[in-house]
Each structure stands twice: as structure tokens, then as C-alpha cells.
Amino acid sequence: MAPHANADVEIEPVTDTSSVVVIGPVQTKTVHPQKITIDHVMHHRQTGTAVPNIVAAFASPNMFKSKAALGKPKAKKSFEHRLTEESKSRNPSSLKEAMKYYRAGTISLCGGLPSSEYFPFEEVSAKVPVAPAFAEADTATSGVTVSSGKYDTVRDGKSDLDLAIALNYGQAMGPGALIRFLTEHTEIVHDPPYSDWDICLTAGSTSALEIALRMFTGRSHYVITEEYTFSSAIETVVPLGAKMLGIKMDADGMLPGELDDVLSSWDENARRAPKPFLMYTVPTGQNPTASTQSLERRRQIYAVAEKHDLFILEDEPYYFLQMDPFVSGRTHTVPSPFKPAGVSDFLANLVPSYLSIDTSGRVLRMDSFSKIIAPGSRCGWVTGSPKVVERFMRHSEVSTQNPSGFAMVALHKLLDENWGHKGFLEWLMYIRAEYTRRRDIMVNACEEHLPTEVASWVAPKAGMFHWISVDLTKHPLYQAKGGNIDYATLLEIEEAVFVSAAEQGVLIARGSWFRAQRGTDTELFFRATFAAAPAEKIIEAIAKVGGALRKEFGLPQKQVQNGHAK
Amino acid sequence: MAPHANADVEIEPVTDTSSVVVIGPVQTKTVHPQKITIDHVMHHRQTGTAVPNIVAAFASPNMFKSKAALGKPKAKKSFEHRLTEESKSRNPSSLKEAMKYYRAGTISLCGGLPSSEYFPFEEVSAKVPVAPAFAEADTATSGVTVSSGKYDTVRDGKSDLDLAIALNYGQAMGPGALIRFLTEHTEIVHDPPYSDWDICLTAGSTSALEIALRMFTGRSHYVITEEYTFSSAIETVVPLGAKMLGIKMDADGMLPGELDDVLSSWDENARRAPKPFLMYTVPTGQNPTASTQSLERRRQIYAVAEKHDLFILEDEPYYFLQMDPFVSGRTHTVPSPFKPAGVSDFLANLVPSYLSIDTSGRVLRMDSFSKIIAPGSRCGWVTGSPKVVERFMRHSEVSTQNPSGFAMVALHKLLDENWGHKGFLEWLMYIRAEYTRRRDIMVNACEEHLPTEVASWVAPKAGMFHWISVDLTKHPLYQAKGGNIDYATLLEIEEAVFVSAAEQGVLIARGSWFRAQRGTDTELFFRATFAAAPAEKIIEAIAKVGGALRKEFGLPQKQVQNGHAK
């Protein structure tokens, strides 16, 4: 239950009914001299600062970083000059500020925190897999039940997080037990080049993106993004009175030269908008195009960001779903016989994040448990420079507050007390292999069933999406219109293919939904996900998409027998 | 596990891996002719529409209302004319709109919903009390374990909500199982006078309030509220560039005559703001004053709202914590030997809500599980007219999405499958009795330990807070200044009392933190909560507050022995 014994509690425990909120400087103890790695994370933890395990305790990554991390230079900039009036005008909560007067033994009649006596949950448990036997069938036979009692922390000393803490109000950054795990994870995976990075838990990246946009985007502003981008991000930006500015891209993502050109030649009068400074990007397995920026590309884009003083929102739900290359006709098995050989190899082969190359503090990285654990966790975290994360917390305090305690306890029990960092990375390797297998099934099905006279694609190297380009010039309407197709005609063709597939019982996503600047499409695309449907259904569905394309483009139908093209 | 057998599933179940989102008209079956009541809710349910139990299924209260509810006139107004540009400009998600093409058997490659195969939670369980043995000690002996498996719904037919649904993405309003429970609850408790009320789950009322404010409040607007109001609400309004407009109040809450006067005489030029139309109110156990509006007061305020076309945000976290009157020297026991005798009596004695008197659709009621189950649920719900709730959902889609699936499953298992409506109301009676006992302890302690020469109060009739008025004119500084005290001096005295109490180890909240219009205080108040600290600590703390007041007001200290004043 509690492999990480908490022998050195420095903050005196109090009962949870004292509505304690501790803000202020925290004593750190022994700090490990080297960067935290998988191999010595537990040693680092055992010799480091204990988790503050009282209700609504303040926690900070600085409590848990290695000496190596703390010894780096601070982030060069605060990015206060990029904040909106809304964000700048947020004040800390009066009630929480009062807590600087809190001392051990203080009785608080201040904050309206209900007594945990009245939480009608004495214990919650979950049946979960044990690393590395992750498949559903394995959980039935070899899974374990992890449990969290109401008073495991202070009264029973069994854990660093219990229901009395998780189910009460808390600080915006989240409970210390999760901040510690994520601090260790951040050093292990990203090792940011500056020392004062901070972390705040989020209610998922959809919520985090909305908060981040309100921190940096005013009405009439443009937000820089890829030419095609996550439709929900567009739908979040539009009501703010802002617009997306789509930058041309290839299979490696946004083109840095294009980005520099657009910014260097920005004419505020002609554009009727200030020069953009906020970038929203999904660097890995981009939604919808599956493009994945190489390290070289990331460095180039970061250099342009430095030149034009951009602030980067790095949205990385698919970061760990980086795949082995697709080989035609082959389907990867699970577990993969290919590399990575182990977690060290897995980590070494991940394209480095923007967070890991950011020296200025100009990146707010958004991580999420949605795609790697479950969307219903409604839990993620942001990592970035201290002032930016502090503003993010101030907004969280008056909106989401923090993720659900049920989710936080479940994640703590699974990730920290059951899997640990090594098991978590092995899990990520496992689902990466599963999604690779699904990617292979879909791309092989496309090779078999789609009319390559009109359809083409680059096999995804990451994520959950396959992006299919369809050659408009081969469509009868294009021919009829003498080589000129306007936007309305493009939409008409796109809709015809969509409806034709839907009538055969397959739903695919239309490329125009993802166009950063609506109405500027000149090419035809469709997005298909290999995340959701079972493998055999994927093949059947792609065959039907092939049929719809053939029908709409006036191509002869392929005869299909037993799910395979003849 | 599933007392409410789901024999009549009308929407064909599909595997959860098909990423289904069903939007559109829903067939209702037999509709019960009478309003839903505690006595026949289960009969109504068994003869009514089944819960749509597929991933991300659309649900609506209209599926579950009684014929009596559906037969009422519709809400008179839509309140579109009060929406901000931001709210009006929200469009439904492209991906979700596409789902109108979804038919039974359709394979969706459209939405990026991960397969539930990769959720590493096979089952979650919770140990919970059985009604009416609610105390912690009883749960240890007579509590039960409720469990939710991954495929209880479609594959095993055991429940209306399982992990495959709750842990995936869902619709903004929440899963059908919870919409059904809350629809029944709404008819049982509020029975709104119009037919087309809608419900959307929220990530708690702090989040709901922020969304509602963005729906109705522009920069430079005023938001009408009580003279003293929830500090977090003030802190949410300020960054929006808006201000609170505090209306004078008494122990029955906001004064309708004052409200009418302020609005009738509003001068847009002098005020440099449009005439206010949004009201934020906590009608029951108001934070911080504990004032509770009588039905008569609510009707008067509603009439003013009709006259000036106001929209009302009814924030009701403490609605069910309505108490028996305080009797000096007496402490209510738990369970209470006083009324209510049972759930019908309990319901009959609750002051009716604004929702229950609203014919125009001008009320958005915000309920929360925070104060009645646990804050860490981060789950609540809003109820209101259909256009308003629809706009709320559009915003939720690009921010919180919906509450955590872990919380939703826990609440469903506890409220629906274990307690049922009767058990839930019995639970509310139980915690109401517990908070009544705590209220009694605090008010009796105030009678014993506070200097009544300067301190006065009205015993709270609801909620979690006690509001203590302190007579500034008795302070030496007032005397020294010849009867004139400016704001700075008021703050100085307030801070001195606060710090003096803090130095003795007690934190209380300062009245000025809650002043709707900051800087306009003319009286001195302190707020003390009886929710958090254990009973004996409450008495000790109030004794120390008494000591601090005596010290600062130059009154002789009382001698205290064994926690009792001599």
C-alpha cells in the first residue's frame, strides 16, 4: 500500500477538520545532487522532502526537485508582458492569503471546508493491472486491488494521499503526492533547462487550453497554429473574439520559414490585429494530420519563437504514442518484438519536448491523462515558468479549483503506489504498441481498399489519427469546371464523400472542420481515427470509405470478398 | 447492484469502442401522469424511458420527466437577449454535429475516443453507509461495498453506468443515468412551474459560476448581489472587468425595496455602466451572513426581477442545510428528536427555491455535491430554461467537458443504486442535523465567551457560517476620533482583532473580504464557520476570539476554567 514510507514528516500533522491551508516558504531537506532518473528516483524520494499530508496543503515542485534541477539558471523571462488584462487583474483568494497566519495547532474557523466526517466514502478501491501484464485479460487473473481509506495519511500513516484530503477542498496545484510524482516524471522525461519550472494540475487539457487562451489572448488577436488544427481548439478561440492563424505545414509539422515570413511581414493595419505572439501547437501526432515535429524542426520553430518573442502552448496528449515506422503489409504485434528494449531505450527514442529545450520560460506544456489512462479522469497538468503557472493557478481557483479527488486518488494509487515510474513508462510502451498495431491495421487497409488514383497519405508516426489526402483534380466536377474549384464546390465534394460513407455505415471526419482559417481550404482531406473501433471493424470501415470515394469520383468499384479486395 | 432493471432499452447497444455520440430527438415511452414523488419514483422509472447506455450518448431531462411536468407551459422567455457576444458566438462541435448521421451498427472513425480496452481500471469500488445508519462508526459495521465494472452496462446488463462509459469522453450534460436521477430529484424537490427545464452537470459550482458569468456579464457591467457576498464570487467577477453591486440586506437576505430603488433610479451616464440585469444570490444560509430568504422575500425579489427583467443565478450549496431554530443553551442531538419526522416532512419544510417559483425561465439554479457529499467530487449541476442551459453546455464542451468519470460513477452507485431518492434525502436530514448540532455549539459558545457589550449576532438558520457583528463605536479609536471612523481605521481595527486571534491560535474570516463593493464598509463583521473544526475546538476557538475582542476593545478579560467562562 505505501512503499514510500513517510518517515520524515516535517509539517506537523493536524486533523483534517482544521481546514488548513498552508502557503509560504517550505523547508527542503537533503536534495539529491543528480537529475532524477528511473534508476534512483526512489532513493531520491526517500532522502528528500516528505509530502505535506494535511488538508489543502500547499505543494510545489521545488520541494521535490533534484539539486541538479534546482542548480540550473532560472527562466530568462516571466512573460508578464504577454498577459491579458483579465489575467493580470487576478488576485489571490483572501481566505487563502489569511493562511499565512496558520501555525501548527491553529484552529481555523476561517475557510468553509466541510468535515471529512460527513464524506460518505470510507474507502475506495480499484482493480488495476500489475506492470507489465497490462492487457484486460491479464488484469482479471493477475491484477491487484488498490485501496484508499479515509484517514490513511495522518491517522494511519499508510499513504501520502487519502480520502480526507482528496475529497476536501485543496490548493489549485493539486495535492503534494501528485505534485511529487509529476515533478519526478518531469525530470525523468523532460529535464527542463531552467530551474524554477512549476506544475499545476488541470481538469484535462480542454480546460487547460481555455484557461491558457484567456491568459494570453485578447479580442481581435490571432493565435498561431498549424494550417490544420484540433477543431475543438478553433471552437475555443472563436468565442473569445480571436482567430486562428494557420501556418503551412508538412509531415514534420509547421514550417519555420513560413512562420518567420508571416511574422516578419506582419502589417498591423492591413491585418487589423496586433502582431501575433501566442502559438498553439500539437508537436507529436498532431490532430488531425498526425504530423510529428522532429527535434530539428522543434529547434527551428523555437528559434523563430525567440526571434519574435512568441509564447508556445505545447499541447501533447499523444506525446508517448510515438511509433515504430510503418512497414507495408506488416502489423506490429503486442508486446512489440522491436525496440524499445526497455524504458531507458523508450525514453531515449522519444523526440524531445519543447519544455526540454526551453531556456526562456516561453513554453507552457499541457499534459493529459485522457489518452494515456482514460478521458474520464478529467485530469492533466501544465508545466511552465513560475509566473505563468501562478497566473494559471489564480484562474483555476475561481473555475475548476482542481481535478476531482476521486480521480486524483485513483491516479495516485495506480501510478505512484502500484506502478511507480518504471511501471508507468512500461504502460506507455504497452499502449504505444497497441496503437502502433492499430495504425498498421488501418494503413494496410487503406493500401488495400482505397483508390490510390485519388487518395494518398503518409503513414502516421504518432498519435491516433490517419490523415488522407484526396486529389480534387480527379473529381468530375473539377473536370466540368475546367480546372477551377471554388470553396463551395470543395465543400460539396467533401460532403458528398462524407454522406456516401455515412450511408454505408461509416463516419469519418471532414478535413474542413480542422482548417485553422475557416473557408480557406484548397485541398480535400479526411481524418480517420484508429483509436476507437475494433480492428476488424477498422478494415470493414476503410473498405467502405474506399467504396464511397470510388462512387463519388466515378471510379470502378472494387469487388470485396471476406473483407479483402480481390 | 442494479435495482432498477433496464428491461426496455430502446436504443440498440453498441460496443463502447464505436465512439458513439447520439444527438437528436428521443422517443419517450409511457410517461407517468403525475408529478414524480418519493413514493412512486421507482414505478415512474420502471414504466418510463430507459437510460441510453452507450458511450457519449445524448441525454435530456425530457426523457425522464413525468407527464405532469411535460404538460406545463414552456418557459416564457429564452434570455438570449441577455447573452454576451462570447456566449452567442459559440457553435456546436463539428465532430459532435456529424453524429446525426449515426445509426445502429455505424462504425465511427470520426471522434478520437480511446478504446476502453486501454483504461487500466477493471473495477472501482467504494465502502459507503446504508441509509439511515450514516455515521462513520456505523459504516464500519453496517456499510456496504458498491462496485462498478468496466462493462456492467452493455455487456453484462448490470447497471445504467459503467467504467467504459464514465471513463470515456461524454456529452457535456453528463451520462443518462445521472440526468435521470437529477431529473427525478428536481421534480421531487422543486417541481418547476414550466415544462422545458434542462439540466447540465458541472465541475462544481465554482466552475459553473464562472461559466454563467461569462454567459451574461460584459466588461464594465455590474452584477447585483447581497451587500456582503461570497468572496470567491467577487474574485471571479473582478477579472472579467465587471463589478459587484451590493444591495442592502437583513437576516432574511437582500431587501427587495432597495433592489427596486437602485434599479428604478439607475443612471447609465452617472454610473458609467448599463443598467444591471444579472443577479447572483445565495438564498439559503448565505455566505458569509447566514441570512436565509423566506418564501415571501423570494417572491418579492422575483417580482422585482420580473419588473426589471433580471436574470437570477441561484447559488444553493447549503439549500438542504436548513435548520431548526436555535434555542439558547440547548444543543440538538443527532438524530434529531425534533421535526422533520420523515423525508416528506423534511421536504415540506424547506423554503421553496427560486427554481420552484420561476415561470419565465429567468433562474439558473446551481446545485453542488461539495457541501452535501464531498467537495472533492468536483461535481454539481445547473437547472434552468433550455436556451440558457444549451449555451452553458456549449461552453462546457470547450472547457470542463464534464465532471470526472470516477466521481460520476461513485455518485451514481451511492445515490442511485444504494440510497435511492429516499436514502439521499435521509442523508441530507442527517447532515442537516449534524450541522445544526455544530451551529448550536458555536452559538452557545458565543453566548458564553464573546463580550456582548460589543458583539452581536443572529443565530444562523441554515448553512455553515456564523456572522458576528462588532460595534465599532465602542472601540477606543472611535472614541479618540470623536465618532468618525474612516475605512482605513475600520480596516485597522478589523486587522488588529484578526491578528490578535491568530496570535492566540485561531483564524477567523474578516468581514471586509466579503464586502460586495470593496472599500465601502461602515460596519465591522467577522465570519466563523462551524463546519470544519471538531466541537471541542469550536468552543476553545470562540473563547479565544472573545479574548481577542476584549483585548482590542479594552474590555476586561473573562477568566476561563475548563473551557467554561466563570
Automatic annotation (TrEMBL), chains A, B:
Similarity comment: family membership: Belongs to the class-I pyridoxal-phosphate-dependent aminotransferase family.
InterPro entries, sorted: Aminotransferase_I/II_large (IPR004839), Class-I_PLP-dep_aminotransf (IPR050859), PyrdxlP-dep_Trfase (IPR015424), PyrdxlP-dep_Trfase_major (IPR015421)
Biased composition regions of type Basic and acidic residues, renumbered to the chain: 77-89
Keywords, ordered alphabetically: Aminotransferase, Cytoplasm, Pyridoxal phosphate, Transferase
Listed name of the protein: aromatic-amino-acid transaminase
GO MF: 2-aminoadipate transaminase activity; aromatic-amino-acid transaminase activity; pyridoxal phosphate binding
Pfam families: Aminotran_1_2
Needed co-factor(s): pyridoxal 5'-phosphate
Alphabetized PANTHER family for the sequence: AMINOTRANSFERASE, AROMATIC_AMINOADIPATE AMINOTRANSFERASE 1
Main localization of the protein described in the UniProt heading: cytoplasm
Provenance organism: Exophiala viscosa
Gene Ontology terms: cellular component: cytoplasm
EC number: 2.6.1.57
Catalytic activity: an aromatic L-alpha-amino acid + 2-oxoglutarate = an aromatic oxo-acid + L-glutamate
Record GO biological process: aromatic amino acid family catabolic process; lysine biosynthetic process via aminoadipic acid; tyrosine biosynthetic process
Superkingdom classification of source: Eukaryota
Region (Disordered): 69-92
Chain ranges of the Aminotransferase class I/classII large domain: 198-544
Subcellular location: Cytoplasm
Class of the enzyme per the UniProt entry, highest EC level: transferase
